[in-house]
Specification:
175 residues, Rna Polymerase Sigma Factor, Chain: A, Arc Repressor Mutant, subunit A, 2 domains, 0% strand
Length: 175
Amino acid sequence: MMKRLAQGDSDAVRAFYERYGRAVFTVCYRALGDRVLAEDATQATFLQAWRAAETFDVSRDPAPWLYAIARRAAVDVYRRERRHRVERLDREDGPEIVVLPPSFEAMWEAWEVRNAVDRLSPEERSVVESTFFLGMTHEETAQRLGVPIGTVKSRAHRAHRRLASMLAHVSEATA
């Protein structure tokens, strides 16, 4: 896929974005706390990745490489916005607001979680996204997906077991 990405193959670009887009957005959103800024950083990430694709070693997993690009893109957007915010505050003669930069660990954890959720089966992923990301109950999720509540519960159970297995390294690293 990376060779085709470097050649500008639109199908490869689309597949690359479909595979990693949500994980990149999650990292950017976690770093910036703003949906519009996260979308800017996500777009910048994929543009930079596309431009640098020909230098990528195709024998390696692109996820860590893309994560590093996403982290830098989010930091760049953060710095740009901080600069503009300080300029606006200076003009308004208001107090300066100090915003702490995003933590590397929190962004890495968000990347790993989103990446693991994206590797779930579509059925399990829809249950996890409904219950965790959207905050729906099992009953609401069952109605939304048009399946019995028992199906939602069993999919949630299987998904959480798979996620725990896929994210064991995160628990160990943050312990």
